[in-house]
Design a protein that fits this description.
seven-stranded mixed β-sheet; 11 helices; globular; Lyase 2-enoyl-coa Hydratase, Chain  A, domain 2; four-stranded mixed β-sheet; 48% helix; alpha/beta; 11 strands; 2-enoyl-CoA Hydratase, Chain A, domain 1
Length: 266
């Protein structure tokens, strides 16, 4: 089943438990507009509302994943705003990033090409990022636009890379390849272009057989860890286990003993 989100800039196809949301502005390298970001949020909501969807994949149509904000589409309200207001960001961009990051099923970014500017935040809002070798990443904000990296980039870059590399990417705007991104820990894996779909399917096959409740709680626990002491994190883990063990452990243990895949309801 294929459906088009309200603004026509994101298409969602659902097959065998996987919803694939495709950014569909290839003529603009899938650059972000208010409408596209609203459609991303709608795609997340549609995936969450479909009981048959166990995984959400986000990708781009054409030779780009996402080239960042569409500067040609910006109006005066976006570039001449006062210090208290960021109309497009607050109303359209931030809600989409928050929806993706807190999605009730695990998420995968299938990075098929150019990922620049705000496209970094969109890709890294997903739980697992897999890139084709021909893809590359560039933070254009500082040296080209004179602004701070946004859409979560200042959270993801130091969290994934450490301060030194985060500062270098953000301040210099250097382009890094998919292979460098994998080596540095920016993404989970880089694969040859003709193996991208195979690898994404391998990952989604694992995730869709898993408990969505467990996967999203893993996300939450890992996101909390940098701010906690070990003792604090033991309590975080315990709180999750108090929910998940009664929900899933009997089935998981039975499947292990019976040498079969577990069948988790949630």
């Amino acid at each position: 089943m294929v459906s088009q989100m309200p603004n026509g800039t994101v298409h969602v196809a659902v097959a065998d438990g996987v919803a694939t949301a495709t950014l569909n502005r290839p003529e603009a390298l899938n650059a972000m507009t208010d409408g596209l970001m609203d459609d991303v949020r709608s795609a997340v909501e549609a995936a969450e509302a479909d009981a048959g969807v166990r995984v959400l994949v986000l990708t781009g149509n054409g030779r780009a994943f996402c080239a960042g904000a569409d500067l040609k589409e910006m109006d005066d309200s976006d570039t001449q705003t006062d210090a208290a207001e960021l109309p497009s960001m607050d109303a359209h961009f931030h809600p989409a990033i928050r929806a993706l990051h807190s999605c009730q099923v695990p998420t995968v970014s299938r990075i098929n090409g150019v990922t620049a500017g705000g496209g970094l935040g969109l890709a890294f809002a997903c739980d697992i990022s897999i890139a084709a070798h021909s893809a590359f990443f560039v933070a254009t904000f500082g040296p080209r636009l004179g602004i701070v990296p946004d859409l979560g980039s200042t959270w993801h870059l130091p969290t994934r890379l450490g301060r030194a590399r985060a500062m270098g990417l953000a301040m210099l705007g250097d382009r890094i390849t998919a292979l460098e991104a994998e080596e540095w820990g920016l993404i989970y894996r880089a694969v040859p272009d003709d193996e991208l779909d195979t690898e994404v399917q391998r990952v989604t096959d694992v995730l869709k057989r898993s408990s969505a409740a467990a996967m999203t709680r893993i996300r939450s626990a890992i996101d909390e860890a940098p701010h906690n002491t070990l003792s604090d994190q033991l309590e975080v883990e315990g709180n999750h286990q108090r929910v998940l063990i009664p929900m899933n452990m009997a089935e998981g243990a039975a499947a292990f003993v019976e040498k079969r895949q577990p069948n988790f309801d949630r």
